[in-house]
Write a structure and sequence with these properties.
35% helix; six-stranded mixed β-sheet; Rossmann fold; four-stranded antiparallel β-sheet; 10 strands; alpha/beta; single chain; 220 residues
C-alpha cells in the first residue's frame, strides 16, 4: 500500500540544515496497524503529515498504491488524500464556523455523496459516538475531549482505506481513550489500515508493529 524510500525533511538557513527526518524507509501493507513512538521532536508528526500528503519531503520517494506521490502536485495530491485518507489531528482541526453536524458532513461532500446517504451516514456516526445531543453545537462550545471525538468521527465517516491518527487519545480520559483504541482496532480488523502516533505504551500495543523514532531516524 505504502512504500517510502530514503525520505528526508530538513529546513535550510543559509548553509545550515536542520533535519527533522533522516533517511526514512518504510513499507506498509494494506490492513496493518502501526504505532509510531518517540520523544518530542523525533519527527513523529512530520512523518504522519508526509504520509497524509499534507506535507512534502525534501528528498526521497513516496509510493501510494504504486503511484509516485513525490512527483504529484496540488489537485492530484488533494484528490488522492480525500479519496483514501482519514486524518485525526492532534489539535482537532475542526472548522470553527461549522456545527458538529456540518463538520462531520464535510468529507462526504468532498466525495460527492448524495443527500439522503449523507444524512444517514452522519446520523449513524453521531449515534455511534454518543454525540447526537451535540450536533448543532460549534467546536468552541465543546470540551477538548468532545472535540477529539468529533475529529475521530469525521476521520472515519467516509470509510477511508487509511486512517492516520496523531495522538488520537491525547485529550481523552483513559476510559474514553480505550474506547477509541477499541474502535480503531475494530476498523483495522474490518480491513482499514491504521498508522497512529502515540506517547502511550499501552495504546501502542494495539498496533501489530511499533516503530520507534529518535532524532529523525528510525531507531527500531
Amino acid at each position: 500500500m505504502i512504500k517510502i524510500k530514503s525520505i528526508e525533511k530538513y529546513y535550510s538557513a543559509g548553509s545550515l540544515k536542520t533535519y527533522v527526518l533522516r533517511d526514512i524507509s518504510l513499507d506498509v501493507r494494506e490492513g496493518e496497524f502501526i504505532s509510531i513512538m518517540g520523544p518530542s521532536g523525533s519527527g513523529k508528526s512530520t512523518i504522519l503529515h508526509i504520509l497524509g500528503m499534507l506535507d512534502t519531503p525534501t528528498a526521497g520517494e513516496y509510493y501510494f498504491f504504486d503511484e509516485a506521490v513525490h512527483n504529484m502536485k496540488g489537485k492530484k495530491l488533494s484528490e488522492l488524500h480525500k479519496s483514501y485518507i482519514g486524518f485525526v489531528f492532534q489539535q482537532y482541526h475542526l472548522i470553527d464556523e461549522l456545527t458538529v453536524y456540518e463538520n462531520l458532513e464535510t468529507p462526504l461532500l468532498y466525495q460527492k455523496i448524495k443527500g439522503d446517504e449523507r444524512r444517514g451516514k452522519v446520523a449513524e456516526i453521531l449515534d455511534r459516538f454518543n454525540i447526537v445531543a451535540k450536533k448543532d453545537l460549534f467546536p468552541n462550545q465543546l470540551s477538548g475531549g468532545q472535540q477529539q471525538l468529533v475529529a475521530i468521527a469525521r476521520a472515519i465517516i467516509a470509510n477511508p482505506k487509511l486512517i492516520l491518527a496523531d495522538e488520537p487519545t491525547g485529550n481523552l480520559h483513559s476510559e474514553q481513550g480505550r474506547e477509541i483504541m477499541d474502535l480503531l482496532k475494530k476498523l483495522n480488523k474490518q480491513g482499514t489500515t491504521i498508522i497512529q502516533v502515540t506517547h502511550s505504551d499501552e495504546f501502542a500495543q494495539y498496533g501489530s508493529r511499533i516503530i520507534k523514532l529518535k532524532d529523525g531516524w528510525i531507531e527500531s
